[in-house]
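Hey,
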Amino acid sequence: MATKKQKQELIDTLKWTPRTYNLQLGAYGGEVYFGKVDRKIYDFFKQHKIDLEEYASDWDDDKWEFVPDDLRPFPPGAPYDGHNAIQCSGATLDSANCLTIYDENNNTVFECSLDPEELEKHGIEVHCWESEYINDYEDGTVVFWGGQGEKGLLFGADLELKQPFDPKKIKLNYSDADGWYIVNGIEYDGEDLENNDYSTTGKWGENKWIIVGDTEEVYEGVHSDDKEDEDAEDQLEWPKPHETGTDNPIDFPDSACTSETWDPVAELDKIIAPFQVTDWFDKDIKPVRKGEYEVMIDAPWPNSGMGRADWTGRGWKHNGTKVKIHQWRGITEDLG
């Protein structure tokens, strides 16, 4: 015999007029794909100084005709078409994202974050249906890793309701891609929902080699536009100290400009207002935008010290020549 609650649910269902709601996930996530690569492919790219990022973003097959078919990790310009162990896209399963249900008048019927604990509170099932971790591979294994970060609507689907909406009927399926939890499948009342409204803006992208176990330094590649600059840098002879044997490049007496104890960064900080520049960043931290920056140049005397250099998106150039740096900072105002 039906309980009082079951009877009331039946009455509500009979009174319910079928309608279409809309389910959406946003606003941060992306796509990731990675898999094992034959060592000979990696060695070929290293030997021929092929920049993986350039290869992954350039569809010009004629440009890459020298790369044999069996030494291509994927077709040029199509990194997502490789033999990947995992490939997924969608919203990240975390508190920065939201699950929202809209009615036919675009009014919000239900909303909660994608934090697993929050979802559990609402009775929403969360299920991991695939998992792949790079550290599970043997040390020395070469891995190709690619990914993009996106912002916007990452899942949109209609809910054809024949009875009142119930969040407990939602099930989120996600892929665990080396610790990046990506929601890429949703069910409602046991039925798969089709993602028919994916609209995002790309925020970042990266393609790289990984060698499991940190057994060796990973080759990062040289962009074709930079190869001539790199060759020229290898042949460049930095000016030697003055023939007098001192550190002064010319016959001037020691001064603040030639003293080993003089700190150009500290001196410049005295005359530049703090709001005009950012903090100093280590060379391992890459600028977000291309352009000119203040840098501490890593080179033999007298070419070392503070100056300005252009960040090309792949390396540093000073007066058109590729240079190495210790640290950099951005200029927030034109200092002339």
